[in-house]
Amino acid sequence: xxxxxxxxxxxxxxxxxxxxxxxxxxxxxxxxxxxxxxxxxxxxxxxxxxxxxxxxxxxxxxxxxxxxxxxxxxxxxxxxxxxxxxxxxxxxxxxxxxxxxxxxxxxxxxxxxxxxxxxxxxxxxxxxxxxxxxxxxxxxxxxxxxxxxxxxxxxxxxxxxxxxxxxxxxxxxxxxxxxxxxxxxxxxxxxxxxxxxxxxxxxxxxxxxxxx
Length: 212
Fold this sequence. Notes:
It is a single chain. The chain has one domain: Alpha-lytic protease prodomain-like (Up-down Bundle), CATH 1.20.1510. It is mostly helical. It is elongated, with a radius of gyration of 19 Å. The protein has helices spanning 2-43, 46-67, 73-103, 111-132, 140-169, 173-207.
């Protein structure tokens, strides 16, 4: 009995730590989203907009993750499925932004805004990754949150590279190229999260008690 009580205390402490970490990364991503949207609109950058949408998707993802800490494996798996759908939604928005820039507004984005906004966003993403790193091999809930944070690093580096390339070339195509590359990252991430959620659902099904 003492051992069981000790296990229960450990589980509760772990869940409390998970909630605390998720609350921090949720707040960071919400603030980053607001800043990146303003910067993207000011700079006319598809790459910055993709970063902003990624921050919004992550904020929603962390809110969902926070809501299901301590829930069943099946519930966490279905939330992970929804996270995959959110990532796909971000990919669709990036597609729309690229099409808009190509067909309607081909202006060269402001590379200075891209540089400072991308740098601040990368710093925020690195902080989130560091906070989530201890839980990267945990349950599907925290593992999918870590996957989102890891994608953000590629996003942040790519936005900085796009700003530098726009400055170097004086053209807008590097911004669109980076946005297209980020689109591929989103699609790959959605697939990885979907597969992890499907495995978790299968595991939950095997562990469920059989009637009779």
